């Protein structure tokens, strides 16, 4: 049986200031900070995860806040735009909210859907779209009630340096189905109900430069460890060069760079973000893997403090 991913597991990006990052994704967008840890490969940098009430697969956007990072440039070899899905009938709420909080937003259309396009404080390209499918979030924060909250990912726009090869990968390796083509974009659909629609550029794009305001990688879902091992073997058989399986505490990961220059990851749905702290206390303190615990004092001393806080504009 061919391997098929349910869709996006998480997306990880570079930003600069952790407080601004938390203010935007928790304060403005109303997402829950479900985990604060460190970049396991660079422990002097936070790794912050935001999502629905438990950071379910398909809802988690994650960040490496690196205060000294250069400003990136969105372009080829990257995820160009991250799409969030909200309940039907709530796009006007989000447009009014963003404008009230000083975030410039513009309405656009693609594949028969209305989108609200905007950027975060670091210039990361984001958009919101209404979708019927996918469970509603149970999390509410600040001025965002649960019935209007972001459900998770709607999908993403991929900016490939080799679009034909990226599209071949999505269809014939990842198991997505081509469902449309319009105005220089080709749309592919996975079988899941969140993070299931991705659009790929059909024409050339300028090469991007990594840095704050750009995406580091996009991760795709594997059901469990057994499925994950099959994915690694499958990727290897297709001529790619995947990394060994890496333990990320909350999922296992395999990375490879596809022919269009975009860094892909395959991540397991299990064990989840409540692996090392209770669900009702997610994200409240810095969690370290056991191999970094002896260095906790040194690591904490090098990280900028931040607070999850309700923004002034949401205070009565």
UniProtKB/TrEMBL annotation:
Keywords in alphabetical order: Dioxygenase, Oxidoreductase
Gene3D superfamilies in the record: 2,3-Dihydroxybiphenyl 1,2-Dioxygenase, domain 1 (3.10.180.10)
Record domain VOC: where: 7-131, 152-269
SUPFAM superfamilies xref list: Glyoxalase/Bleomycin resistance protein/Dihydroxybiphenyl dioxygenase
GO MF annotations in UniProt: dioxygenase activity
Domain of life per record: Bacteria
Pfam annotation, one family: Glyoxalase
Name of protein: Ring-cleaving dioxygenase
The species this protein was found in: Paenibacillus zeisoli
